[in-house]
Amino acid sequence: MPLFGGHKETTTAPPPVTTASSSRNRSLFSRRRSSSPDITTTTSTTTPKRHSTLLHRTPEDGSITTAKNSLIQAEAAEREADRALWAAKTKVKEAREQVKRLEREAAEEARLAKIKQNEARAIGKRGKHLGRHDHIV
């Protein structure tokens, strides 16, 4: 048994071949006007069926092969460009998030510094009243 579904040679009987005894002109695509043929002849031949597989391909024209290879390379380049674009967009998004995070941290530090400054000012005001008894020793 073939591993990849090889082809089998089969004996097939083609449909009966009819020949016209009259001088009627028949083509391959014309309809038969009468239901009974004039003469019927059957022939039996053995012809192998041809299947195109991955291993047994029909030869192609060089320009077609070149065009296919060019198309495959272009598709691969496009996929790579899509990956690069996605990576660049991700990096930009991460950078923007980092900048926003830094701005929030700076704003929070500024808020805390302002609170600290106000508390230091209040403590300084209280400290001015110290030492009123310095002149008495």
Topology:
Blueprint: E1 11-12, E2 17-19, E3 39-41, E4 45-46, H1 62-128
Antiparallel strand pairs: 1-4, 2-3
Biased composition (Low complexity): 18-28, 36-47
Region (Disordered): 1-67
Biased composition (Basic and acidic residues): 1-10
User: What is the strand content?
Assistant: 5-15%
Mean pLDDT equals 77
Please give the radius of gyration in angstroms. 46 Å
Read across the widest sheet, the strand sequence of neighbours is 1-4
Q: What is the helix tally?
A: 1
Succession of helices and strands? EEEEH
Give the CA-CA distance, first to last residue: 119 Å
Biggest sheet overview: 2 strands, antiparallel
Shape: rod-shaped
Give the helix proportion (percent range): 40-55%
Give a count of the beta strands, DSSP E runs of length 2 or more.
4
Q: Give unreliable regions as ranges.
A: none
Q: Helices and strands: which structural class?
A: mainly alpha
Could you list some keywords that capture this structure?
two-stranded antiparallel ribbon; mainly alpha; single chain; 137 residues; 4 strands
